[in-house]
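Action item from last week, closing it out:
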Amino acid sequence: MVSSEAREPIHLARGSGPTVLGWVLPHVIALVASQGLDAAAIRNIPALRHRNLEDPDVRVPESAAQEVWRLAARMTGDDAMGLHVAEALPRGALDLVEYAFRSSASLAVGLERLARYSRVLSDRVAARAEGQGHDLILLVGDTGRTPLHPARAEFSLAVALRLAREATGVDVRPLQVSFAHGAPGDQHEHERYFRGPVHFGSGSNAMVIRREDADLPLLGADPALSAIVRRRLEKALAERDRPETGSLAGGVRRMILEELGQGNMTPDAIARRLDMSARTLSRRLAQEHTSFRHILDEARCQFATALLHDRTLSVSDIAFFLQYSEPAAFHRSFKRWTGQTPLGFRRRTAA
């Protein structure tokens, strides 16, 4: 029985910018305190002082969440803090999003729902579960203009893998795990936790799951409960997707990351979805010091580096998915982004 299924989400007032649910922050603070450290500096972050972080519906500014992770990492000196927070989470910590995952029929469906409803958890993350090849790739995209703190990126994939293991009852071992940020000084905890190849400085935060694992049934599969929970989450998702005063560029990044390979990713198509002209879209993005082309390149780069970890996909398959007219055009773009050819990148990140 899910006691929270009728609960309505609480939001910050419009105009407050990107927000995230504050549910994970007490667990970050608890990790700091468990090491005998004084977490007062974290608790006293101005945006958090008057918020009840124990309320699973309370939202906090994205900037405050980023500062919590930054301070906690600096205080603990823990190179694998994100993994340790994920391991310490109590069952049900993700609230309805977790129940949407656990009540799914299979791991693949659960990961797809986890990716879809990540928008409810955070205005910043744009996750995607993509099964282009024989394997399944979970990509955690970042719509922010500043780098996501490494511990947050690692936490996102670590939570997904923990849920996968618990919900299937199988010790799921990813084929590959990649992170956009550089390698920590000590990688032993990452190797212990993921129990598979972990690559850093890879241009994307992604995890490749074997198809046979993705097809595993979930122990808590429950179609009736799933339908109830998803109705609540779809309502919350619609609320989060209302026009806000936050970054237009962030919204465009999210649309592209969530739909690249599935729809027509052109300025005209995106502008129509935003109920504006292509000229207005271009002008407003320029005011935010970016452009549609630049955002599309960023999204393509994240996808390309993630998809290249799936050895069942050819470079031509990836070029087609990214909506290039021919593999040669993708080859040129990838070399411009990374300084490497697609095949050179694939060889470098081979297990």
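Closing note: The domain at 19-214 is CATH 3.90.1520.10 (H-NOX domain).
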